[in-house]
Amino acid sequence: MTSQWTRDRYYKKAMKEGFRARAAYKLTEIQRRFTVIREDDNVVDLGAAPGSWLQVLQTLTHGRIIGVDLNPIAPMEGVSTLVGDFTTPEVQEEIRGLAEGTVSVVTCDASPKLSGASSYDQARAIGLGEDALMFAVTLLKEGGNFVCKSFQGEDFPEFYAEVKKHFRSVRTYRPQASRRGSREVYVIAKNFRRSGDGA
Predict the structure, then answer these.
(1) GO MF terms on file (predicted)?
(2) Is pLDDT of 1 > 80?
């Protein structure tokens, strides 16, 4: 009953407040706690559909906001959206153009389609996170920030260690808006160092 109540609570709140998904409150919590987005940042949101994180980003920055997903994202004012695979050079070049060369923050709340096999799903989620990290390493400006959903499990420590190679501050956080029983956790990485040498 508690899990159902929690899900309904945030779902109903999202519908009432005009957000496209309850996930909006996760980014709101992360921003309140870690201030990963500044008011002039250009932000790229990976796996952005249906767009609830883009809606939150609209309230946080006057910079350029770019959402990328394999599925179409319904238009919203002040946001550029792309349908495509963010791991491809073609899509990355298009993003660079939209951001006019400067990406300050990369966010990713994407999840793979779940099969129900926990070890398989966790491995796929880590793989998606690794793709998002490589995107961030490729496009972020020096000092930029990265927020990525992941899932706790045997592969997570290796992913977390890889993120730490590229950012001076790395934390994990589980928002209250996460569903009870979910193994999701967010990696909050700040102050990107382009050398990536761990120095």
Answers:
(1) rRNA (uridine-2'-O-)-methyltransferase activity
(2) no
Q: Are 56 and 27 in contact (CB under 8 A)?
A: yes
State pTM to two decimals: 0.88
Confidence (pLDDT) at 116? 66
CB 153 within 8 A of CB 113: no
88-97 residues labelled b (16+ CB within 10 A) or e (exposed): eeebbebbbe
51 is in an annotated binding site: yes
Q: Is 197 annotated as a binding residue?
A: no
Q: Is 149 designated active site?
A: yes
pLDDT tens sequence across 99-136: 998 999 999 998 877 666 777 777 888 999 999 999 99
Q: Which of 192, 193, 189, 194 is nearest to 34 (CA)?
A: 189
CA distance 56 to 28: 7
Please check if 53 is assigned to a binding site: yes
Domains recognised in the chain with CATH numbers = 23-192 (3.40.50.150)
Q: What is the pLDDT of residues 47-105, one digit of tens each?
A: 999 889 999 999 999 999 999 999 999 999 999 999 999 999 999 999 999 999 899 99
Q: Where are the beta strands (DSSP E) in the chain?
A: 43-46, 65-69, 79-83, 103-108, 140-151, 167-173, 184-192
Active-site pick, 12, 13, 113, 149: 149
